[in-house]
């Protein structure tokens, strides 16, 4: 049964960032209850709570449990000290107080699972205070019973029953020296000479202690200038070593195992020690600004071995402004701004993610100029010298899921490019299927992953309110929900990728638009596009694509019932400018036989011409013509199961339902051929179509009425039904 | 007072056994007249239909939707019929009817 290493530290770190104390925090940590705890403060003394200290094998913290559901814990407390030490897996907790600097705080365990009751305490956990004071290291820590047994009693510096002061026991290894150093906070400016020599001894002593298995023993005795680089190589080696250990199944002899395990535990600790030492050193250098032989090598050259130590993003905060590592998932364009005092400046922002979190960072003025061309979206970097402040606009950051701080780079910040870190995802995606977009609100932001169906190619585009020309591309995309949708990309994004038909792309943070009832997607300042064949969702889509038969659902805008449209039309009477777009499926009941069925139109444009003596004149084209063009203007009644309405049909659509052109109809009328005329008009009677309508309030002879105009007529096809069937099958499959 | 209209449930060929003695609707292609019945091909199976007059010879297939009573020996007594377009998709229809009589039966019939 393994405890979760560093769980206590993580909880304390998390506690430092928690804004809402009532928040339930989910986790997955295995702890051991190791001690009774007798609280001083009244909060923890509540009758309904039981107080213990739990350990993760390295550090202890106060943990409270509810009394009522845990009678076995009530019993546990009756022996003092404890004789049984239960192992529990905690899945959620609450923080009961704010952590004091360097110390822990009580947590209230909400949900947990009982695993096992052990007779022994795993490892030798220290109080959190000591643990923090010791640089978060405990050489006698362990996460499993086995480790503990092989750690060796004679190496113990700390006993969990006696709270010995740290300095009393003569050091067997260099831990002692670390402790002596800790009281010097990292921000302090140390005296030049003394610090350097201490470091030197530290390094040398460490080298002596390292087990012979590492090859670097010889190298370690070399001159100081090489020390830093070697330290890093050593770390790399130790990591490899660690990995080798972990992959082997150790059935070896006890001693070998003991040695190896010791090595396993130590490099983790040593690595951290070394990182910290290096960091301290570097800070000294930066503060003193001198050129000791521990000069940091040219950062750009040392891509593989960056000399700066980094911390996870969740640990970075205003009181811990350290370097961090991450991938730049978005670089925004550089913009100009003017302050209140009429000063001009430049700025841009980036989004960075590491294994677990996302942040938004800004560059201003000189920093903006310095770094804008250097940072490449998608690459990984180590960032240091970043100013961290509590967020000014918390809501906005919460919206995008970013940590609640403002990060600002200045001219002295350092950004070092590093090799691809496989542990850091390309971005934090939350893909939705295209068919769910139709049901979402206009303006909402979504991520999609889809296949390119068609592309308009990159086109020049003139924005309405800007002078400069921009670029734009319109992509038709689809995914396995069989829904097709259009994505329009403006600006640099339009040219970022080739967007070939059949390729699969991931689009993050597209905005939903609506035009004439149809939903589409568009980029905004948050958008980023990614292409990676190995991303899980891309692979899934690729697999689906191979078996895809090519039949997509029609881009179905919501089909309205005529009764719904009639209801909605009431709103037009209140707002003269309101246009309602509808898509109805209805039968053509009849075409009005009387009244005007056609009009005389200009041969050049479509406007009505005025009749002159023996010619016709168009005022807008200033043309006179002998014969006008005849165009239909029909009134038709359409009906579905809910109601019926009269709609006006223009020439283009009319020719779909009547198979003779308007001038022929005119002829028939003039020749009195009523039967033929009626036959022509009834050609499509009772046939069902999809009508796209625009409804608006119109005034005619002082009467205001909502008129429905047909924009398009589509006959019902089997593909329509097939599409609906596909949708049904799709939903049934995915229930 | 109008009579309650008759309900001719739409079924596929494989459901015929369950609907013997009831009013059903079947779609298919009219083949040839065989004495007192007409051969009606529904999804590969030949159903014998009575009361249908095959009037004109047509160059195209005659696709019909026939509503009638299924009697116990498997004959369909046609009561009404509608002609179908040549573009009628029988496969699609079959899938839909499977759903209509299957999972979604209570949406359509009592």
TrEMBL record, chain A:
Domain Replication protein A OB: 435-521
Residues of the Replication factor A C-terminal domain: 581-720
Signal sequence coordinates: none
Keyword annotations: DNA-binding, Metal-binding, Zinc, Zinc-finger
Bias type Low complexity, positions: 212-221
Biased composition (Polar residues): 201-211
Keyword Zinc-finger: yes
Family that this chain belongs to: Belongs to the replication factor A protein 1 family.
Name used for this protein in its record: Replication protein A subunit
Organism this protein belongs to: Paramecium pentaurelia
From TrEMBL, chain B:
Alphabetized InterPro entries for the sequence: Rfa2 (IPR013970)
GO molecular function: DNA binding
GO cellular component: nuclear lumen
GO BP, sorted A to Z: DNA recombination; DNA repair; DNA replication
Cellular compartments annotated: Nucleus
Key words of the record: Nucleus
Broad class of the protein's primary localization: nucleus
Family note: Belongs to the replication factor A protein 3 family.
Protein's name in the database: Replication factor A protein 3
Gene source species: Paramecium pentaurelia
Lineage: Eukaryota, Sar, Alveolata, Ciliophora, Intramacronucleata
């Amino acid at each position: 049964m393994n405890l979760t290493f560093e769980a206590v530290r993580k909880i304390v770190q998390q506690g430092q960032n928690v804004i809402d104390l009532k928040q339930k925090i989910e986790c997955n940590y295995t702890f051991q209850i190791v001690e009774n705890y007798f609280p001083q403060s009244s909060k923890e003394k509540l009758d309904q709570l039981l107080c213990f200290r739990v350990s993760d094998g390295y550090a202890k913290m106060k943990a409270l449990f509810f009394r009522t559901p845990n009678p076995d814990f009530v019993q546990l407390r009756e022996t003092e000290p404890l004789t049984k030490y239960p192992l529990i897996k905690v899945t959620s907790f609450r923080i009961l107080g704010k952590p004091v600097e360097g110390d822990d705080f009580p947590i209230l365990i909400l949900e947990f699972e009982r695993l096992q009751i052990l007779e022994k305490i795993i490892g030798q956990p220290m109080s959190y205070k000591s643990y923090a004071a010791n640089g978060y290291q405990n050489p006698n820590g362990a996460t499993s019973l086995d480790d503990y047994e092989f750690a060796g009693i004679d190496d113990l510096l700390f006993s969990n029953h006696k709270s010995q002061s740290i300095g009393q026991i003569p050091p067997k290894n260099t831990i002692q020296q670390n402790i002596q150093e800790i009281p010097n906070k990292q921000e302090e400016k140390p005296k030049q000479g003394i610090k350097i020599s201490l470091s030197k001894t530290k390094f040398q002593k460490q080298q002596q202690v390292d087990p012979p298995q590492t090859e670097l023993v010889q190298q370690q005795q070399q001159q100081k200038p090489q020390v830093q680089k070697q330290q890093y190589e050593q770390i790399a080696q130790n990591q490899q070593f660690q990995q080798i250990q972990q992959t082997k199944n150790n059935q070896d002899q006890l001693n070998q195992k003991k040695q190896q395990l010791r090595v396993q535990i130590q490099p983790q600790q040593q690595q951290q020690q070394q990182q910290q030492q290096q960091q301290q050193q570097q800070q000294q250098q930066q503060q003193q600004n001198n050129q000791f032989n521990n000069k940091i090598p040219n950062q750009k050259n040392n891509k593989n071995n960056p000399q700066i130590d980094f911390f996870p993003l969740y640990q970075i905060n205003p009181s811990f402004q350290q370097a961090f590592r991450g991938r730049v998932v978005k670089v925004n364009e550089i913009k100009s701004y003017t302050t209140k005092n009429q000063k001009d400046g430049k700025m841009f922002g980036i989004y960075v993610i590491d294994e677990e979190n996302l942040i938004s960072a800004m560059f201003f003025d000189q920093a903006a100029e310095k770094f804008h061309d250097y940072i490449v979206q998608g690459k990984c970097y180590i960032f240091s010298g970043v100013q961290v402040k509590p967020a000014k606009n918390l809501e906005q950051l919460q919206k995008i899921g970013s940590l609640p701080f403002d990060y600002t780079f200045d001219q002295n910040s350092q950004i070092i490019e590093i090799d691809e870190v496989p542990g850091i995802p390309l971005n934090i995606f939350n893909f939705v299927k295209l068919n769910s977009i139709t049901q979402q609100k206009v303006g909402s932001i979504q991520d999609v992953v889809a296949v390119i169906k068609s592309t308009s190619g990159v086109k020049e585009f003139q924005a309405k309110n800007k002078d400069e020309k921009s670029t734009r591309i319109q992509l038709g995309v689809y995914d396995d929900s069989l829904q097709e949708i259009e994505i329009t990309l403006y600006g640099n994004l339009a040219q970022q990728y080739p967007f070939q038909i059949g390729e699969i792309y991931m689009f993050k943070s597209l905005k939903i638009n609506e035009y004439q009832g149809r939903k589409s997607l568009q980029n905004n300042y948050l958008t980023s596009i990614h292409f990676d064949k190995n991303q899980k969702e891309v692979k899934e889509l690729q697999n689906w694509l191979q078996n895809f038969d090519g039949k997509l659902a029609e881009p179905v805008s919501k089909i309205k019932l005529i009764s719904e449209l009639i209801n909605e039309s009431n709103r037009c009477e209140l707002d003269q400018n309101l246009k309602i777009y509808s898509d109805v499926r209805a039968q053509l009941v009849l075409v009005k036989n009387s009244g005007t069925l056609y009009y005389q139109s200009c041969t050049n444009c479509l406007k009505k011409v005025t009749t002159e003596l023996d010619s016709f004149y168009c005022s807008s084209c200033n043309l006179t013509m002998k014969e006008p063009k005849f165009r239909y203007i029909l009134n038709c009644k359409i009906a579905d199961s809910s109601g019926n309405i009269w709609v006006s049909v223009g020439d283009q659509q009319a020719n779909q339902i009547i198979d003779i052109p308007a001038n022929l109809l005119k002829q028939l009328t003039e020749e009195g051929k009523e039967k033929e005329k009626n036959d022509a008009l009834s050609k499509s009677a009772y046939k069902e179509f999809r009508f796209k309508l625009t409804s608006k309030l119109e005034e005619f002879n002082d009467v205001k009425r909502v008129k429905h105009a047909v924009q398009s007529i589509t006959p019902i096809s089997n593909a329509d039904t097939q599409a609906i069937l596909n949708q049904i099958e799709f939903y049934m499959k995915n229930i | 007072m109008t009579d309650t209209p008759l309900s001719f449930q739409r079924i596929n060929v494989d459901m015929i056994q369950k609907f013997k003695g009831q009013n059903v609707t079947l779609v298919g292609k009219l083949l040839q007249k065989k004495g007192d019945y007409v051969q009606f091909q529904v999804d590969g199976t030949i159903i014998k239909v009575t009361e249908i007059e095959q009037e004109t010879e047509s160059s195209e297939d005659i696709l019909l939707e026939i509503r009638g009573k299924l009697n116990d020996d498997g004959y369909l007594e046609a009561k009404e019929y509608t002609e179908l377009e040549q573009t009628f998709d029988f496969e699609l229809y079959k899938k839909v009817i499977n759903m209509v009589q299957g999972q979604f039966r209570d949406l359509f019939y009592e």
